[in-house]
Amino acid sequence: MEKNHYSHFTKIAIETLKNGEKYPYNIYRQVDEKIFSILVQKETPLSMVNQCFCVDEVDSNFYIKSEDKLKYYTFIQHHITDILDDDKINMDVKASFIKEIASVTMHELFSSDVNSENLSKINTLVNNSIKLMLTDRNAMYSMLKVTSFDYYTYTHCIDVATYALGFGSYLQLELDELNTLGKAAMLHDIGKKNIPHEIITKNGTLTPEEFEIIKQHPTYSVDILTQNGENNERILLLIEQHHEKCDGSGYPKGLTENEIDKLAKIIAVCDVFNALTTRRTYKDRMTSFDAFKIMCTQMNHHLCTETLKKFITFMGCHYKQDQDGALLVEH
């Protein structure tokens, strides 16, 4: 037996355990509040007859060491196609896997050099997200339930892409447009890698000089992606335009409504909504109602009115708010 603090272990989904499979980490079963026993040692084929193992037991809880989380999600990433195709795995579990893989992928992208290899992971991530959403209409709501409450640049990108893909699916965009929208939304802020960290994380209002630096990030995003082989002109266009405003007061080119791509208008709405409804070090998150109130009044000349109306309808179709303003699925 191993005695350890609960936080040193991470729960894993029982549905992903397969007879005869080898795993690059030990798998544990919780047998008491702070007691865990090794169920399967790493690189040892899992057997359904292992002592203390019963996949049909509803309250069975299986864990890995928290230090092995990256190995776990790397393993899941390599097997994600089979997982998404498995009807026995709950949709919420599938959505949580997509979110965790996205978190690992985007964190790596923002914390290391951008290259063709990690950009290809974004393509796979977007394709899997679309596949999940188009497989089952409830998948979209499972994906939205795992959006973040706290704002970090990389989680913000994931959440904006999730909202954009859900909204795009609701609008019945063609598959190629969904792919373009999802990838552009996922990578729209990658240029912030080139902005000084103290500006990105500043606890308070930016000075005019700092804001001028921030305004360069759409251009930086395009430059980074172009230098690493991205040649889809529309993806680059959407990323460049995600801070343009319909009244011409946006950046980097001061475009007006008719000059802004329709998919860039979607990203802009999702970008603002996520920024308002996530928590920062200097502000608490807003409820969806308060965010939409601001977007419809103070930002009504900035955002595309038609796109915003449709987004509010999309978000309201199957959701209600709890007392903290979080979105809950209406079943």
UniProtKB/TrEMBL annotation:
InterPro entries: HD/PDEase_dom (IPR003607), HD_GYP_dom (IPR037522), HDIG_dom (IPR006675). CDD domains: HDc (cd00077). GO terms for molecular function: hydrolase activity. PANTHER family: CYCLIC DI-GMP PHOSPHODIESTERASE PA4108 (PTHR43155:SF2), CYCLIC DI-GMP PHOSPHODIESTERASE PA4108-RELATED (PTHR43155). This is Phosphohydrolase. The keyword Hydrolase applies. Residues 132-327 form the HD-GYP domain. The keyword Phosphoprotein does not apply. Coiled coil: none annotated. It comes from Candidatus Marinarcus aquaticus. Keywords: Hydrolase, Membrane. It comes from the Bacteria.
